[in-house]
Each structure stands twice: as C-alpha cells, then as structure tokens.
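Tip: read the tokens left to right.
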C-alpha cells in the first residue's frame, strides 16, 4: 500500500487510491473492492476511517454496496484519461484496460499544422509524424485521437509509421527507442461541437453533438516536447472528478 501523507485526510487518500485503481482498469465494473476490515488492516487505520473511504467512493458514484455480499465497482460509461493509461503502462506494460482496444486509422509523415509545429517546437513547414486512432470499449467507440511527434523520430522509432498498435504505448516506445524520459504532461480541456468526421468515427449519428476536446502534451526531463495529442470524447463518455481537502 502507498504511504499515507499528512496533507490530506487519511480516508480521502485511501478513497483516491481505490478510485485510481478503478480509473486505470485495475478494478473493473463488478469487481469487489476491499472491505472495511481489509482497508483497516492494509492501511493501518481505524474501521471508521475505512468506512468513510468507502462512503466517499459511493458518493462519487464509483461503487455500490450489495447487502450480505460487499462493495463492488459500478458499471459506468467513463473514458480513460491519459494519466490512467500511463499508470497501466508503467505497472503492467500495457496501456489499455481489459475490454479496450484501439484501431490505428493512419500513421504517416505530414507537414505539421501551425498549432502542432508551435507545440512541438518545429520550424514552419517541418514534417511531423501523425498517428490517428479510434479507441473502443465493449460498448463501442469511446475516443478518437491524433498523436503528433517530431518527424525526426521516423528513423529512430520506425514503428510510429506502422499502422498497427504499439502495445506498450507510444510514450514508452519512444523512451525505449531514444533514451529520453517522459517527466511531466500538460493538459488543456474544452468542449466543442464534433466535426462530421469525428461524429462518424464515434458513431454519434445525426448532430450536432457536444464533445470533449482534450489536448495533451508530454515533456521530457529537459522540458522538450515528446508528443502532442488531440483526443475527442463523445458526450456520454466524459466527466470531471477531483477530490481534495479544503482545510
């Protein structure tokens, strides 16, 4: 178990740990979460603290109690964010949770659009690698995304231009191929209307449809950009959740 910190209440740290396991797919819908007794033993806390952690998860709509059986992860249509996928990649070497898979629509070398060149710090007109994918769950498409990387990686990381999945994830593959290490990421999130192409990829039907546009940039230890990704999530697959202490 992770060590408890003194900044946040203990129950909230425990709840956040279990929530992260749910978000990254370690705990799937229908899985039983640790009981009050198990949480108390694993985290060395009192039973009331363990009960409060489970209650926080219930209030977030993540788990439900079944009388005489225990507490279980609820089935809910939420899409996984980049952070949860990085956690899975680091922990088990696979970026997608069970039941998820990606279809690579294209992998090509193209002239970087202006906003991509600016983010990746490329010269005007310079080429960039463009990888487009649609991610599916058991219920259908949940994400349409395009990853952009410097065209200089075409030689050192040739799989980026192959129209096939990279099972360990793009970032882990680039790290292995180049020796660079991803250090931190920056996200920019906004809502907008889906384009016709996005609506078709996400099987949204006749529009207009509001979607979540998620711009995600990963930087190395020197502050240099490695990847710029633009993801679009359908209206029933995204939500914002954050827990924190106000004391």
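Filled-in amino acids:
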């Amino acid at each position: 178990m992770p060590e408890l910190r003194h900044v946040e209440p203990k129950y909230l740290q425990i709840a956040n740990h279990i929530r992260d396991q749910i978000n990254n797919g370690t705990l799937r819908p229908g899985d039983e979460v640790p009981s009050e007794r198990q949480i108390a033993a694993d985290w060395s806390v009192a039973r009331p603290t363990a009960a409060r952690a489970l209650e926080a998860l219930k209030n977030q709509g993540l788990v439900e109690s079944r009388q005489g059986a225990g507490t279980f992860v609820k089935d809910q249509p939420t899409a996984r964010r980049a952070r949860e996928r990085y956690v899975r990649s680091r922990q088990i070497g696979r970026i997608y949770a069970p039941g998820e898979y990606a279809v690579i629509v294209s992998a090509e070398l193209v002239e970087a659009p202006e906003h991509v060149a600016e983010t990746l710090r490329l010269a005007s007109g310079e080429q960039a690698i463009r990888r487009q994918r649609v991610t599916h769950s058991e219920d259908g498409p949940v994400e349409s995304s395009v990853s952009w990387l410097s065209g200089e990686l075409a030689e050192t990381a040739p799989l980026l231009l192959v129209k096939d999945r990279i099972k360990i994830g793009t970032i882990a593959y680039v790290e292995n191929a180049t020796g660079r290490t991803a250090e931190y990421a920056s996200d920019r999130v906004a809502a907008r209307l889906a384009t016709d192409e996005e609506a078709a990829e996400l099987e949204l039907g006749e529009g207009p449809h509001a979607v979540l546009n998620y711009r995600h940039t990963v930087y190395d230890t020197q502050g240099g950009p490695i990847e710029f990704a633009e993801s679009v999530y359908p209206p029933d697959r995204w939500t914002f959740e954050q827990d924190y202490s106000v004391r």
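The chain has a mean pLDDT of 85. The first strand starts at residue 63 and ends at 66.
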